[in-house]
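User: Okay, second chain of the day. Same drill as before: sequence in, structure tokens out.
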Amino acid sequence: MNRLLVCLCLLLPLSATAQTQPDEAALWAALRDGSHVALIRHSLAPGTGDPPGFRVDDCATQRNLSPVGRAQARAIGERFSANGIDTAAVFSSQWCRCLDTARELALGEVTPFAGLNSFFAGRGGEAQHTRAARTLIAEQAGTGKPLVLVTHQVNITALSGVYPSSGEIIVMRVDGEALSLAGRIRTGP
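Assistant: Same drill. Structure tokens below.
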């Protein structure tokens, strides 16, 4: 009996969390109408950071997507399509793993945007990257076209307060340059 009570007590917080998470269909609808933005952490690229000698203009010097990561990115693009989003305004960090994720989504032309570049391990200023991303979102919001930004964990965490998994979609409500978390769409490899 005590084990049953312990199990129930452990499950109650999970139940409360599930009730506060918006319905995934509502998140897709919000993305479709352009009133929200999808922040996507690049899909699976094993490791952390980048190797010594990293150069943004040379993919051979970077940590890149694994075959599983490429398949994950294609599957994410298929989920967008299955939810009525076949094209979007797509912006990406200049890092190869982000550009490759964005291209594999197959949602349209991908625009590299330095404001989405990683600032992990001293690679740039968090405040200026976050400000540039907020400005981009404010400029693109309200066009009626879905907006997708492919970037890094640190950038998404700075914008949302959420630590995303590889390939996870963080949906943010847009009000000018103000953003608020609407929900998460998990994609898993």
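The radius of gyration is 17 Å.

User: Thanks, on to the next one.
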